[in-house]
Specification:
- By secondary structure, the chain is an alpha/beta fold.
- It is about 30% helix and about 20% strand.
- It has a single domain, classed as Alpha-Beta Complex (Spore Coat Polysaccharide Biosynthesis Protein SpsA, Chain A), CATH 3.90.550.10.
- It has 8 helices and 10 strands.
- Strand 1, helix 1 and strand 2 form a beta-alpha-beta unit.
- The two termini are about 30 Å apart.
Amino acid sequence: MQQISVSIVSHLQCSLVDKLLADIESVCKASSIEVILTLNTHEELPFAGRHFSFPIKTIRNQIPQGFATNHNQAFAHATGRYFCVMNPDIRLNNNPFPALLSCLQDSSVGVAAPIVVGEGGEMEDSARRFPTPFRIFCKAFGGCRDSDYVVKDAPFHPDWVGGMFMLFPRGIFERLGGFDQRYFLYYEDVDLCARLRLMGYEAAVCPQARVIHHAQRSSHRNFRYLRWHLRSMTRFFLSPVYRRLKCYKPEKH
């Protein structure tokens, strides 16, 4: 059994996956890792035949699937004690896993995430308070632009963390039933962190772990992605999870 199973899904992004695998090979040798790579559409692997120090399991979808379905499918093939969801547009300069695993030693933490920075070193807003219709409206009209949390040296507990990089204890991801597959794209991470909260667990951001995100921002440029984004947002606000979250009072688990 590997310690960490890393799930990466490629949508004609194998050039990015190639760089990410090289990063994992370079900086994560101290960690016991396996990679489950899902090819959501047909593409050739530029790294086929290359030897890595970690095993790679490749899943080829006959029909493209959504974010939730792809990572849940990968989890079914994972053997690690921890399950990591990682976007192909993530780059690693240092090994984030020791700090993340340290955060997960706190039994109240159900998912750990690193600090995410952009290509220019600017900090991304990847740790946020749960969305509300008012906050969405405020952001849409140019307000509510400040970061939801102040980042210091100590781990902190946001309401939710972005799905570009999430690390779960295997048992907790299993108890959750994974991501809700009714979300095809967007808000899967919000819904999952909301369900974690309702189970009595917290998300944690671990400042000693840092990754680089070459964000695609597809919903800002493509109407189809924007439509998925709006559809997922509506689904979340109409869901029983959101209704329960508004009435939630913390309980010990």
